[in-house]
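Quick start: read one record
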Amino acid sequence: MLLNEQLASRSKPRLAVRLAQCAEDIRRAQKLRFEVFAGEMGAELASAELGIDRDEYDELCDHLIVEDHNTGMVVGTYRMLSPAAARRAPSLYSEHEFDLSRLSHLRDNLIEVGRSCVHRDFRSGAVIALLWSGLADYVQQQGGAYLAGCASVSLTDGGHQAVSLYRQLEGQYLSPAEWRVFPHLPLPLDRVIDDTAPVPLPPLIKGYLRAGAHVCGEPAWDPDFNCADFFMLLPMSRLSARYNKHFVG
């Protein structure tokens, strides 16, 4: 290899984020989602026989992917439902789990995000940072004023982490009452003994909170995905200075 080729190879970042451009990009993201949701969390997926996680919202959404250029693998993904696409959908995806009546006046300026996951070998923070950078660019391009969606916590431990996490967050990060949402199937908080010791914040929820997001109420219980879902709302006007400088410039 020539010296200039070696230098170019060294300067090229290993990880990069971009919007999915074709059906194959989306399928690779769906495969990663299957590995995480079904393989790790025990989710029961309608598309399991295909080895992917796919639903009716995938065609309406834009998809972020983080690629490892050393292997060609998709190691992180997020999907986004723009306000224009949401008008073509029967409802927001989150409405399957929550009553969002109090947020109805925000709909035209709200970008719903979800199906976030990171490959088990890449959960040190770099992929989450790239996904947030991609989200910030996307929200700017779409002109959105609010970012909202569910952040999931696995229930493979019987729900102890999820309950402890909510008890940890409710005193400091709950939204104003006018932005509160209500789960259709609440996680039975009173039936799980939560640990009195603080639990580590999952990377996705940590990212939301550092950016300035609210937790909009009690988590919902999603039996199909074997997880508790926390509804998060980030008014872009609250985007923390640290995130604004790092991701938006």
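Residues 15-247 form a domain with the Aminopeptidase fold (CATH 3.40.630.30).
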